[in-house]
């Protein structure tokens, strides 16, 4: 988002966490409840070919961060111009400029729940192990805390559908307050 662009009328929210914690489902629910545009960053990467190769061991593309940031900036500028906000979901948070987001929600899942979700997705042993270790070591949470102001980073559980509902409800309330305070 350009520094000199229009003042936003609606907030931008980042939903982040280890793969398998429920980012896309939570972001979709928030989008429906709050009326923010859902930006699935993983789909955006594929759609705009924001990758520079493939990591066969992890069965994933290698991200071209610069290209992704260019694509995202256009989306965020348009949302600001249109008076809308976005809810983005992605497993990396440290690559985005701090000014882009008003709230960063870090979803956390217990290891047994996460293991089952990753297994159901068909992750190979190496990819599943790396993601399990990242969750145990709180890698994404620490990256969020290092990349954004502490008051906008919130760690929340994401083990059940009830957790997802509660998180969406909390974000909806937060958005109302943000809009009232930034009108």
Automatic annotation (TrEMBL):
Segments of this protein annotated with the region LID: 120-130
HAMAP family per UniProt: Adenylate_kinase_AK6 (MF_00039)
GO annotation (BP), single: rRNA processing
TM region positions: none
Residues annotated for ATP binding in this entry: 20, 22-25, 121
Family: Belongs to the adenylate kinase family. AK6 subfamily.
Region (NMPbind): 40-63
Primary location group: cytoplasm
Protein name (Swiss-Prot/TrEMBL): Adenylate kinase isoenzyme 6 homolog
Top-rank EC class of the record's enzyme: transferase
UniProt keyword list: ATP-binding, Cytoplasm, Kinase, Nucleotide-binding, Nucleus, Ribosome biogenesis, rRNA processing, Transferase
Biological classification of the source: Eukaryota, Sar, Stramenopiles, Ochrophyta, Bacillariophyta
Subcellular location: Cytoplasm; Nucleus
Listed EC numbers: 2.7.4.3
Protein function: Broad-specificity nucleoside monophosphate (NMP) kinase that catalyzes the reversible transfer of the terminal phosphate group between nucleoside triphosphates and monophosphates. Has also ATPase activity. Involved in the late cytoplasmic maturation steps of the 40S ribosomal particles, specifically 18S rRNA maturation. While NMP activity is not required for ribosome maturation, ATPase activity is. Associates transiently with small ribosomal subunit protein uS11. ATP hydrolysis breaks the interaction with uS11.
A Pfam family: AAA_18
One GO MF term attached to the UniProt entry: ATP binding
Catalysed reactions, as listed in the record: ATP + H2O = ADP + phosphate + H(+); AMP + ATP = 2 ADP
GO cellular component, as recorded: cytoplasm; nucleus
PANTHER family recorded: ADENYLATE KINASE ISOENZYME 6, POS9-ACTIVATING FACTOR FAP7-RELATED
Subunit structure: Interacts with small ribosomal subunit protein uS11. Not a structural component of 43S pre-ribosomes, but transiently interacts with them by binding to uS11.
């Amino acid at each position: 988002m350009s520094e000199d662009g229009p003042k936003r009328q609606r907030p931008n929210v980042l939903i982040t966490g280890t793969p398998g914690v429920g980012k896309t489902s939570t972001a979709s629910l928030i989008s429906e409840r709050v009326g923010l545009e859902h930006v699935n960053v993983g789909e955006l990467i594929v759609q705009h070919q924001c990758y520079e190769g493939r990591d066969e061991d992890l069965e994933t593309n290698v991200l071209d961060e610069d290209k992704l940031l260019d694509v995202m900036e256009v989306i965020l500028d348009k949302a600001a111009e249109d008076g809308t906000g976005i809810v983005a979901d992605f497993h990396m948070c440290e690559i985005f400029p701090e000014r882009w987001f008003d709230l960063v929600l870090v979803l956390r899942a217990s290891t047994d729940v996460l293991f089952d979700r990753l297994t159901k997705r068909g992750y190979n042993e190496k990819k599943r192990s790396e993601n399990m270790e990242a969750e145990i070591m709180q890698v994404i949470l620490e990256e969020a805390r290092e990349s954004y102001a502490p008051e906008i980073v919130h760690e929340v559980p994401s083990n059940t559908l009830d957790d997802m509902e509660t998180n969406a409800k909390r974000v909806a309330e937060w958005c109302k307050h943000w809009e009232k305070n930034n009108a």
